[in-house]
């Protein structure tokens, strides 16, 4: 039995194709398995995204409600601040008046103590005025 070169080449090509198919089959199986896992992962991801979207919608609704309440609170606080502004201004004006009165009192006390009387002079002046008043009253009697 003699095989021609063409038949031998065909046989070698068939064996090479068989080897190629044998090596390709496991790779195709692994690829199919990876595609199944990827499909499962995508399905799980889609379900998770749906739940997350629902949760985000709920969270956004609650956040909007909270912001509305915060705006109402800020409006109320601003109204109360407008009511308190005159009171604070009056207290500031009163503080300035008290400060000016204090400064004036200090100036008078300083002028009174340094220019006219010393402590002993003040006492003697008061005593002299009291004795003078007593003498006048005795003279009237």
TrEMBL record:
**What Pfam families does UniProt report for this protein, alphabetically?**
DUF948
Keyword terms: Coiled coil, Membrane, Transmembrane, Transmembrane helix
Q: Which domain of life is it from?
A: Bacteria
Q: Which SUPFAM superfamilies does UniProt cross-reference here? A: Methyl-accepting chemotaxis protein (MCP) signaling domain
Transmembrane portions of the chain: 6-28
Q: Which residues form a coiled coil?
A: 35-69
The record's PANTHER family line, in alphabetical order, gives: UPF0478 PROTEIN YTXG
Name listed for the protein in its UniProt record: Methyl-accepting chemotaxis family protein
List the source organism: Lactobacillus ultunensis DSM 16047
């Amino acid at each position: 039995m003699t095989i021609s070169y063409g038949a031998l080449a065909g046989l070698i090509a068939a064996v090479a194709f068989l080897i190629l198919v044998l090596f390709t089959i496991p790779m195709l199986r692994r690829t199919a398995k990876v595609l199944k896992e990827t499909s499962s992962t995508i399905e799980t991801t889609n379900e998770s995204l749906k739940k997350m979207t629902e949760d985000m919608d709920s969270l956004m609704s609650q956040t909007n409600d909270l912001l509305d309440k915060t705006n109402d609170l800020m409006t109320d606080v601003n109204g109360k601040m407008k009511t308190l502004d005159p009171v604070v201004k009056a207290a500031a004006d009163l503080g300035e008046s008290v400060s000016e009165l204090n400064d004036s009192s200090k100036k008078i006390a300083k002028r009174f103590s340094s220019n006219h009387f010393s402590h002993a002079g003040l006492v003697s002046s008061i005593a002299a005025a009291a004795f003078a008043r007593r003498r006048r009253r005795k003279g009237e009697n």
